[in-house]
Write a structure and sequence with these properties.
single chain; about 230 residues; alpha/beta; 7-stranded mixed β-sheet; 8 helices; about 40% helix; about 15% strand
Length: about 230
Amino acid sequence: MKQSDNTTPYKANDYDKNVRLTIPFYELFHNETIDLVKSLKPDAKTWLDTGCGTGYMAGEAIQHFPETTFILSDPAEAMLINAKNRFLKYSSGNVRFLDSVPSDNLCSKLDTKPDVITAIMCHHYLKAENRLNATAACFDLLAPKGLYITFENIRPLNEESVQSSLERWGRFQLSNGRSHVIVEEHLKRFDKAYFPITVREHLALLKECGFRIIELFWFSQMQAGFYAIK
């Protein structure tokens, strides 16, 4: 899992295949996000997906929100190239791309106020100050009553649980045919290549950034989804 063109353990061209072998219930993150937007922001005019990766999230969402304008951003140029290729078939102009930019610099790149901002499995790569800045930037960018949704790897509440949860995560990857060497390399990334925080810390962070409604809406093993309304 040699890192070369983005912050994930996989090259951009191989990301979609490998992430499903690594993250339990990965498909559900996107399904649950789309379902939540249908409930809370069904008439969203603009949807920003930061840390968009290969564009999978927006590619699924656009099928349910054909009238919505999607804006995609990612700090890795290699991911954006893959995302742009995914959307070659869309000529209606309802998909826009920003130059490679991390979430905490979005305010300097965007001239509109999105109704929805999603950050799926991207902000856990940030250390505390940058994570705060990234979340605050999403809050500032949102339109009034705008919806923010994020999924991240999560830190259990105590260190004993960290170890047992990592062992469980390793068994999941082994069951998908990953080698022991690859699984061990992946588990060593905890607190080194990505920096998970607890559910309590996530909720406190969203409150600190100013969101008036904050909820945990999906949680399994070492991943969780949160939504917040400005």
